[in-house]
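Lab meeting prep.
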Amino acid sequence: MYKFVFLLCFFNMHMLILVNTAANESSDAKGIIGAIIDSSSRIGQEHAVAMNLALEDFNHKNNLTFDLHIRNSQGDPLLAAIAARDLIDNQKVQAIIGPQTWQETSLVAEICSKKSIPLLSLADTPEWAMKKWRILLQSSPSQIMQMKAIAEIVKYWKLYNVSMIYEDGDSSSTEVLSKLSEALTEVDTKLNNVVAIPPLVSFSMSQQLEKLREGQCRVFIVHLSFPLTLKLFETAKRMNMMGEGNVWITTSTFTSLVHSLNASTISNMQGIIGVKSYIPNLWHQYGNFYHKFRKKFSSENFEEFSYEPGIFAAQAYDATWNVVDAMRETNQKGGQFLLDKILLSNFTGLSGKIQFTEHKIAPTHTFQIINVIGRSYREIGFWSDGLGFSKSLDQNASYSPSVEELGKVVNPTCSLRLRIGVPSTSTFKQYVDVIQDHSENVTSFKFKGFSIDLFEETVKKLPYHLEYDYFSYNDTYDKLVKQVYLKKYDLVVGDVAIVSTRYEYVSFTQSYTDPGVVMIVPVKSKTGNRAWLFLKPFTKVMWILILVIIVYNGFVVWLIERNHRPELKGPILHQTTTMLWLAFYSLFSLNGDKLHSNLSRVATVVWLFVALIITQIYTANLASMLTVERFEPTIDSIQQLKNNNAMVGYDRGSYLKRYLQDVLGINAENIKQFDSQESYADALRNKEIAAAFLDIPEAKIFLAKNCKGFVQAGPTYKIGGYGFVFPKGSPLLHGVNQALLDISEIGTLRNLENNMLASEECKDIIEPGEDTTSLSPTSFMVLFILTGGTSTTALLIYIFPMNYLCPGQRATWSLMMAVIKSWRFQKALFPRRVHNVAESSSNISNLPDLA
């Protein structure tokens, strides 16, 4: 079978060789070049006419005779290889131009490499090929830069879903996809879909297009061969995919041949935008090429609708002129010498600047933008790399980064109406509340809450208009998120936590709440056993210091007074009890008239002053503790929950169950779900659960409403946070994120949250950190030094009599004693609130006045 196919191909090629040889051979030829084209295609037809014209013009100008041998490969790589071998072995060509596809070029390059025959390819050629075959040159400028132009056009419809349709097996596809993706990223856009179309006619084009029908507003970038593109638009028209809401953009592979289409074919592609290589208006420099091409093309291809030359004709003309000019300068020498001369070419041809760099002509940086409309197309402007869009390329041209500079090319607006899923099972209705309305015998829904208000404020900040409808969803949040992935909803608005497992299917906006999960537990009294509450106003150290200073002051008074009062003498036990009595009795009464020594009176006065201050502060602190209840958490750590094997609660339909089990290590049997705020509070009060785990936004609402009985305990676990849900790669996501940031910075987000919490706010909430602590000696150190110092001074004076004092010290002491004596006679004016209690003491009241 293979032998039969090969013989058939060889026979066809042999017949073509005989025909072309008879037409082109010349005995006085100065050089021979070969060409391999596909005469069945419009590109091949333009190539053949342009090459012959180039040879005629060159021979006429230089009075030389060069021969051109053209072979028709019919687009078959095998026939192209056979043609190349015939041109080299039989026709003795010194260089070959063509073919126009990479599949053909790769086989021909292998044959030319063995014979060192330069091959000027008219197809897009990968970099590695020119390194492998040094005789291979890409003589047509690379069109890869057009992807930047396309990306700038797509930027105009950034809300649309962008899809790429390319030809499977095309050598340029990988580079094209990479460059397009990179260019779209630079304009904050992404490819949503990529579809490869096989170059065979046996497949169903409609099946391929069906994959791209979903969504409302779509941009299709088409990078296919000319025949496949025609079939694509014919199928799209039949499937009603060419109307409003669909933008079609074609690359130069197709657009550069739009001029060849008839009105019937163009009717299938109304509204498409095309990018094609720009051909400078240089026809007049080459012997009126335009008119000569039309005349020759019409005579050879009378069945064609249009006889206009395109970029492919210009490129073939330039490649032919380049080769014969190099052959003339090298005296028709072939091989490596001719290749080097071609590489040194530097002239301006029909298609632009001809200069090779690394075996390739510099890529095109200026493209023409067309719009197919009516029975033909119109040229609406240009795009130049680094400059942007303009309506002309003259010296006075103005450039703009937006395609709007070129006017309204197609209907730029698409009625983008979003379907928004809203959870109806939210536990905390303050965030999202779905209310059923059964009025007028029709069930409808009303959507309220913080998340709804925030989304609507965000939409107002967008630079474009969005229309949307809310839809209630009554199931788990995980399933709701998957509805976006399944394209039932365009996005989700509600109290949806941002967690990694959901990122597998969708994308989230930035969090609009504080991220984190906290533990809520009941509170218990901090004061513990109230029977000992009277000791709480002072610390233990304070109580000890008070006792020490009391005993010390009593000892000083007893020591000074015992020589004047016999009842203070006697057995040790009697003296000790009497001393303690004097010490504590002085807390309630001065009894200066009962004391015989001015020294003891001074010590007692100072101590009574200090004791009065201490007792007043004690009374105030104790009153505060008795009237204000202090609380602390019943549970303060996860470990305590585990040790107690306690039950905990979480929000129904939440991701928290997985987190409690897998991360915090709580037994699954001890985890219980709840579906309302009230059920949480009741379960905590009834000790059905020991703790509830809530997202921070939920915890704020719960504690605002249940402020007295519950408190946050333990650390904050940094997960979650609420966000809006979008499909992966959604063009809306970037704009919504920016709008969220804007309303956060101007305070709108904070105001919405404050308004939400205001109705639940509890004014008398007691923060766990607020506490009236027991007082320590630090607060009374000056008072203790004063009384202790006074008593010590009196003791020292008693031990060391007045005779040991210097005159100055005696005068000071005498003055102090005079003041005390004066005060003694005014004792009736001194407050006796506590003194009257001591008057009943028989031991003290009967003591004689020895002063």
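Slide two material, second protein:
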Amino acid sequence: MSITTSQFLEDLAEPDSAQYGSGQAVHAEALSPFASNELLVTASTPSNEHTTAYASELSSPFSEAAAFESDRELETHAVEALMADFADDGFSEALEALTQEASARHAAAATNQWSSDATLPAVAATEIQQWLETVAEEADQRLAALAEHYGQRTIDSLSETELEQFGGEAMLGEARSPFDSQQGFVGALIRKVKKVARGVANIAKKGLSAIGRFLPIGKLMDAVRRLIRPLLRQVLGRAIGKLPIPMQPPARKLAQRLGLEAQGENLDYDHQGEQLSADFDARLAERLLAPELPLAEAQPGDHEIPWFGEQPGESVAALDAGRQRLAEYFETAEHQADPTAAMEQFIPAVLPLVKLGITVVGRERVVKLVAGLIARLIRPMVGGQLAPVLSRHLATSGLSLIGLEAEVAAGGSRLGADALVSVAEDTIRQVFGANPEVLQNELLTTAVVHDAFTDAAARHLPADVLRPELRADGAGHDPGVWVSMPRHAGRRHLYRTYSRPLRIVIHRPLARHIVLSGGETLEDRLLEAGLESFPAEAQVEAFETLPGGQLGHIIGGEHGEQAPANVAELTTEFEELDEASLLNPLLPRSVAWHTPRPGHPHSHPTRRYLRIRVKGVPLRRRSVLSMRLALGGAKPVLTITVRLGEHQAHALATQLAGRGHVAAVRDFQRWVRGPLRAVITRKLVRRLARHHMSATEAVAAAAGQRLADALAASFAEHVVPATPRLADAAKDPQRGVSLVFGLTFDTRDALLSAASSSTTLTVRPGWHHG
């Protein structure tokens, strides 16, 4: 809302007694430049309570279906509203936690069992499948209980109170640890079903006949039950190292059916749980809206829906086999033998997992050229005599710190050969992801290969075997190397670990400047961990996933033969590192992500994680913002939940108790317009894309900025009356406080431009998703 200078001066002189109480003003902490004066700041907001108090009770006598010109238009609108109602960040997080625990269990089984016996990996996969089956059985029993409880009752027969209590806490059984991924998934699924019920009820009112078949709650529960095992099958695939199909078939099928463009196929999800959840939603919407699929044909045990392409899974296995062959070659070849033929055989094993910068035409010529160039560069290290020597050199690069010195001391270590394989693999990824124009020119290709090989050698080989100019590390850290893990005879490498923990001194101005992936600053993270003074010395461990690898594999591999019970909790100790992170300058070049040289790819095929501890206490990653879009009502509503940690919540409550409203508004404004703005923009783009609304980068950035401004304005508008609720929420034993902002938009176009017509603010103790 704009305000004139005269209005501002009038408001400054005459506080609004209706909002602040008789004669009460808000005192700011800002110091006036004039001696012996205080600046009094007040706010004035027009009230329309008398005209809007009963508006929600009015309902149009006309059917909403009458507003649409065709069944297709009605169905399109219904699908979009249904998908909006289904969206659930809590379900996404529960799926992520379940995936990582399955991965951790698999990695632990690998450490315990895998050997050269080719059958043992299948045994490990079977163990994870059996565990996931217990998850499926528990979920199926809960859904069956709901179906039996409600029977033939229809959703529209439920009162608002019954809908609110639908599948409530009483049906979740005895509460367990908040980090119990199995119980967390089942609980999130029941809450998801509640959202589904509300969504179906909303759509049924719009006159869509296909939904009518699911109004009996028992049938709706059966539809959800049929999708649980296919969903867990996808979790299993990720846990055992398969790669998902890049495009979600149900989303594409729905889009084609409704004449829409599939926007969601290349979404950059924060984590795979969000992708799994979106795919589940699309499958459920497809089942609800497909009259041609008789319900009797699909049974609750149906789990044969192909959620994985065979080619990606085979590609990871082929790469594993290629790594083993190349390592054996490095160990058995004659001294400085020509490895060109071995490289020509290895490159095709890497290419299926690279976003190629070349076309099919001319690929064979480029493969031969690159194989010859890499062979020439790596030849000085080839040979059975050099491999054990290289392993001993690697032992001086911090392997004792990660428990691998015994492998070298025992002899027969493949550390040297594996390091050379990693150098070759990383070089191939960089080169074949380069711009097509580069790979069509032999001189440019040669330069790219040389640069990529040099960088890869500095990452994986010890400093004393490199040229002097490559040994210095600008960050001043002791040089370390990346080691493929886990170490076992089966050679199924799922991730890498950096051999030396890093020590970084963090000063407060620097911590305040560094924004982490979730939208909080490093200062926030340190204060939430209990740090009381700066500077602080942090110990940093670095890890990197390989194709098919998960964060859970890192956790399982680092904990030995038995997966820890609190995998979901341990995942919060890992911060993902990307090229934009301001942590990069603090790290050695071999650990930091750097902007690639011209001609190199601008994305990495792996994920890199840091685990940061200060005084032995891990800094835990937090998801501080969630977003939900509702399209089922008369107007679009965007719900944005900003979650405050314990330290933030108590600091805000103390600030407001001392009448520091201006400082509180200023701090919140800086947060949402600064660190949180990128998160707001990213989540908005994904929410819109799920509903086939695309936006250019510039439009998305502008919309994100306007949303951040709207949150700041809403906080300023509501913070004074919300002060008592904030104080109570901060004292509540639940962790943190949730600020739930509801933004209403007059039209979908207004949503795209982020021009909200009204906002609300709800304060809730604990962390919620809105």
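Talking points for slide two:
Residues 624-770 form one domain.
The two ends are 25 Å apart (CA to CA).
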